[in-house]
UniProtKB/TrEMBL annotation:
<dbReference type="Pfam" id="PF00106">
    <property type="entry name" value="adh_short"/>
</dbReference>
<dbReference type="InterPro" id="IPR036291">
    <property type="entry name" value="NAD(P)-bd_dom_sf"/>
</dbReference>
<dbReference type="GO" id="GO:0016491">
    <property type="term" value="F:oxidoreductase activity"/>
</dbReference>
<keyword id="KW-0560">Oxidoreductase</keyword>
<dbReference type="InterPro" id="IPR002347">
    <property type="entry name" value="SDR_fam"/>
</dbReference>
<protein>
    <submittedName>
        <fullName>Short chain dehydrogenase</fullName>
    </submittedName>
</protein>
<comment type="similarity">
    <text>Belongs to the short-chain dehydrogenases/reductases (SDR) family.</text>
</comment>
Length: 304
């Protein structure tokens, strides 16, 4: 059976935090969770737009300022959530930037790596102890098929200071999202409550593509009806990862159509690099050093 929003169980009593929830995939994810009974926090950079989005959702919705390109903002948002919520059931790391000209975060990190990976890494680490005691709690991180395109973790130049490729930098950040999920799941497994899951939306028609080079954007816009799906459809893999009772920690969900571009959500596989245990652990250590955030779950020794 094709999985749709009709299969989302009731979410009454659950607290869900969705980053980047004022538009696109994040909005559709938040809307469905709220309409199925969850108390949803829209964690957004622009709170005015967040309030406008909240007004369009039927359910218990609040807005929290979160700028993932600033670790100060990440810490403030996490502190505010901790003050307001004794527990969190779902943390959905959805926000992101794509194909931006070279820019840096407040701390000087390359913008795509700093926002898409490091910001979410820090946010998750600062909130994780609110999820750990909660049965069925999940951390869902949104990656992309872009994790396969010119993608590698450039440990010798993580911030792209020597040369810059907006496509390569995006690929690095989305590969990092998957490595983070897999290593986090390994650490969570010993606790037996919270799980980490990843998802990707295929090719969805959202504002995320606004920085795509014009040479690519124009033909994609012309072919969009044949190549892309709506934001509502693109959110389904995230929603399945968040709400389907059959989901297992460490799984990755994406559309079931040709090249995983569109369709109904199903388990997917990611690139060989994403499963490399040594690279995952090295990225984790670097991410801790760069953000200053330590997780309340320790490293698991590799099997002999």
């Amino acid at each position: 059976m094709k999985w749709t929003e009709q299969q989302i169980p009731r979410q009454d009593g659950r607290v869900a935090v969705v980053t980047g929830a004022n538009t696109g995939l994040g909005f559709e994810t938040a809307r469905q969770l709220a309409e199925h009974g969850a108390s949803v926090v829209l964690a957004v950079r622009d709170t005015a737009k967040g309030q406008q989005a909240a007004a369009r959702i039927n359910g218990d919705v609040s807005v929290r300022e979160l700028d993932l390109s600033s670790l100060e903002s990440v810490r403030a948002a996490a502190a505010g959530l901790r003050a307001d919520h004794p527990k969190i059931d779902l943390l959905i790391n959805n926000a992101g930037v794509m194909y931006t000209p070279r820019q840096t975060t407040r701390e000087g990190f390359e913008l795509q790596f700093g926002t898409n990976h490091l910001g979410h890494f820090a946010f998750t680490g600062l909130l994780l102890d609110l999820l750990l005691p909660v049965p069925g709690s999940r951390v869902v991180t949104v990656s992309s098929t872009g994790h396969r395109i010119r993608a590698a973790i450039h440990f010798d130049d993580l911030q792209w200071e020597r040369s810059y490729s907006r496509i390569g930098a995006y690929g690095q950040s989305k590969l990092a999202n998957l490595m983070f999920t897999y290593e986090l799941q390994r650490r969570l497994a010993a606790h037996g409550t919270t799980v980490a899951v990843a998802a990707h939306p295929g090719i969805s028609n959202t504002e995320l593509v606004r920085n795509t080079p014009a040479l690519v954007r124009r033909p994609v816009a012309w072919l969009a009806p044949m190549l892309t799906q709506s934001a509502a459809a693109g959110a389904l893999p995230t929603l399945r990862a968040a709400a389907d009772p059959s989901v297992l920690g460490g799984q990755y969900y994406g559309p079931d159509g040709l090249n995983e571009a569109r369709g109904h959500p199903k388990p997917a596989t990611s690139s060989a690099d994403s499963y490399d245990l040594t690279l995952q652990q090295r990225l984790w250590a670097v991410s801790e050093d760069l953000t200053g955030v330590r997780f309340p779950v320790g490293r698991v020794a590799a099997a002999a």
